[in-house]
Structures are given as structure tokens and as C-alpha cells.
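Sample entry (185 residues):
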Amino acid sequence: MLLKLPRRNTTSLIGGIAAELASEGIDLIDSTYFLQDYLPAPGTLTHRKPNAAERADLEYGLEIAREMARLDLGQTIVVRGKACVAIEAMEGTDATIRRAGELLRGGKEARKKIKLTSGALTVLKLSKPDQDMRFDVPVIGLPTIEAMAAAGATCLCVSAGKTLIFDRDEMIAFADENKIAIVAV
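Predicted structure, serialized as C-alpha cells:
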């Protein structure tokens, strides 16, 4: 069944399995059905709100995220100075954030590539507008914020009502200690 799929991205692979299960009479429910308390409401989750530069990066990042959703690419984008520094592929969110941080701290070649941008890194972890909540739901937690702090990222944007947040209290406390703004849109 999997070999017959036209694409091998997450949506196609898991969707193919879901379709196969449905053909056997097994219906999958929204994976967040019993986890509603782990989904953020819209608004700022931390004490600090995004500053003007971070808001500008968020606006730019939201445009890129919409295009990524159309192309069915990863859920994470890292922006600095209205420039895309990193886009998630198969490595996952935390590795994408670390890669962006390495570019900022990297050698002479890496710094040349991003010297036209300034400021801190802003991370967006967003669901697709038509996200199938039965699987592949965006997830963040304390390790995500720890990766951001290590990379020099100061703002995180997630999808309200569509992003699972684990270790919420610890995550927000760590973000507040490290002056990282978290906002759900």
C-alpha cells in the first residue's frame, strides 16, 4: 500500500495508513481529543510579549509558513531580520532551531550568508490550515525552549488550538527566565 503512494511525505504516508484502516472499518479520531488542556488559547503565553522586530519577523514568517503548508513541508521556520534562516525538513523542530543557531555562530562563510540580517532568531512552529489532527500534530515543550535559548532565539509563535504543549509550566517558567516570548496565533 505504501509503495503505491504518489508522495512519501508525512501527510501521504500517515494518510495512507489511515485510509487503509478506514477500509477495514477502523476510524481514527482527533489525537488531541483527550488533550484539550494541552492546546494553547490565542495570545501571549509568557510575561514578555514580542517586541517590534519580533512582530515583523512573525508577520514575515507567517507568509513563509503559509507557503510551506501549501507545499506540505515541515512545520517549523526560523527567521531573523525578515529573512528565512532555516526551514524544518525531516530533522525535527529542535534540530532546525539548533541549525539556525549554528549558522549565527558559524564560521566566516556562514556569517557572510546571513550578515544582511540583524537581531535575534524568531521561531514559528505552525500547523497547516487544514492540519489533520488525527496525526502529525505540532508539539512543543521544555526541550524546544532550551534549544531556542542555546541558539539565541527570543520569540516562539505556535498555532492556537492546534499545538500540543507538554511540560507547560516548566516550559513557560524557563522561557520567562530566558526572556523568550511565546505567542499563540
